[in-house]
Write a structure and sequence with these properties.
Length: 112
């Protein structure tokens, strides 16, 4: 897997795919049941993609390597709407989630 395709940057509080410049949109009218997942690497690089049970999950981004945080999120038109610290592989702790919330705050993401 080419992880660069999943790399996301935050500019002015909005989420964009770094290499395509495309704004992140996780909600899709045709596929409303899809789950979008993220990991934040130890070097604070954010990766986001659609979960595909059995073939693409949290461990896929970094080949099972260490993370600061992992979970699920909902982003509409680049704006964060919801986030959960849920990953069967990484089993994030409350501290991991707080680290992710700090990362969001450092990048001017509205977490109210």
């Amino acid at each position: 897997m080419e992880r660069k395709a999943y790399e996301v940057v935050v500019e002015d509080g909005k989420f964009f795919y770094k290499h395509s410049g495309e704004i992140l949109q996780t909600s899709d009218m045709e596929d409303s049941e899809s789950k979008w997942i993220f990991v934040l690497s130890t070097s604070k690089v954010l990766y986001v993609g659609k979960k595909k049970k059995g073939t693409f999950q949290h461990s896929s981004f970094l080949a099972g390597g260490a993370t600061v945080a992992a979970g699920r999120l909902v982003v509409e038109n680049g704006v964060l709407k919801a986030v959960w610290p849920h990953s069967g592989h990484y089993q994030p702790t409350a501290e991991n989630f707080m680290d992710f919330l700090s990362f969001l705050g450092e990048n001017n993401v509205d977490i109210t």
